[in-house]
Amino acid sequence: KILYPGEPVLLDITGSPSSLTLLRLMASGYDKASHKRITATPIIVIIDESRVCEVGESVVTEVLRVVEETPHMPRRVVIVPLEAVFLGETLEAEIRKLLNATGGNDGNSIVDLSELSSPELVSQTREVLLKPGGDEVRGSMKRRILTALARNLDCSKVMLPSTSSEFAAKLLESVATGRGSGISFQCNYLDARSREVTFINCMREFTLKECVYYLRCQGVPLLTLPQPQQHPPSTIAQLAESFITGLQSEFPST
C-alpha cells in the first residue's frame, strides 16, 4: 500500500491523454460506490506552458474544464507557470508566500501562481527549450517545480502520468547516449532518488494508445497541448520516440 488515509498527494495533470486517464482513474476511487476507495487527499498540479509556447488560449482552461466535469474528484488545483523554475533558490520561498496569501493550503480551491511569471523569465525559458535537448530540459524543469510544490504542500508523493510508451523511448535514448546507468530509476514504479519526495510512475503499465481509447470510451475529449512555434533541432530522444510510436502503431503488442 502506497497511499495512506488523509495523506496529501500531488497529481501531475498536463492535459495529455495519459494524465487525463490518471485523473479519471483516481476519480473512480473517490466514488462512494467503489469497492476500493482512495482515502488520500489529491492536489492537482497544472504546469502552464502557454506563455513559453506563445499560444493565445491556454490549455489550462481546457484542463480545468475537464477537472470540473470529472465526477467525484476533489477539486483542489494549483497552477504554476513553467518559467517560474528560473527563479532559482527563491522558487520555494515565492511559492510558499503565494500559497499562504491565497489560501492554497486549505480545502477545495483553485490557486493560480501566475504572479511568478515575468517577460524576462518567459524569454529565458523559451531560449533554453529551443536548444538541442530542450525536451529533456523541460522534463527536469517540471520535476523541480513539482518537488518545490510538494515540499510546501507537505506532500511526500507525486503521481506522474508517464506511460510505457514514454518509458520505452527514454530507455532507448539512455542506451544510445551512454546513460544506461539511470534506467532502473527511470523505469521503476517508485522513484525515490529524492529523500523528501517519492515520484510514482503509476501509468507505466499503460500504452499511449490504450489511454486514448479509454478516454474515448469515457467520452473525455482529447486536448491539443501547446508546442513552441519554433522547434529545436532533431535529437536522439525525438528519434527514439518516433520509432516507439511507429512500432506500437503497427504492432500494438510491443
3D structure, described in words:
The protein has 254 residues and is of the alpha/beta class. 44% of the residues lie in helices and 12% in strands. β1, α1 and β2 form a beta-alpha-beta unit. α1 packs across α9 and α4 packs across α6. The longest helix has 19 residues. The radius of gyration is 18 Å and the shape is globular.
What is the mean pLDDT?
83
Structural class: alpha/beta
* Helix content class: 40-55%
Tell me the strand percentage band: 5-15%
Distance, first to last CA = 29 Å
Largest β sheet strand count, sense and barrel closure:
7 strands, mixed
**Secondary-structure element series:** EHEHHEHEHHEHHEEHH
Oligomer: single chain
Total number of helices = 10
- Low-pLDDT parts are none
Q: Tell me the radius of gyration.
A: 18 Å
Number of DSSP E strands: 7
Q: Give, in spatial order, the strands making up the sheet with the most strands.
A: 4-3-2-1-5-7-6
Shape: globular
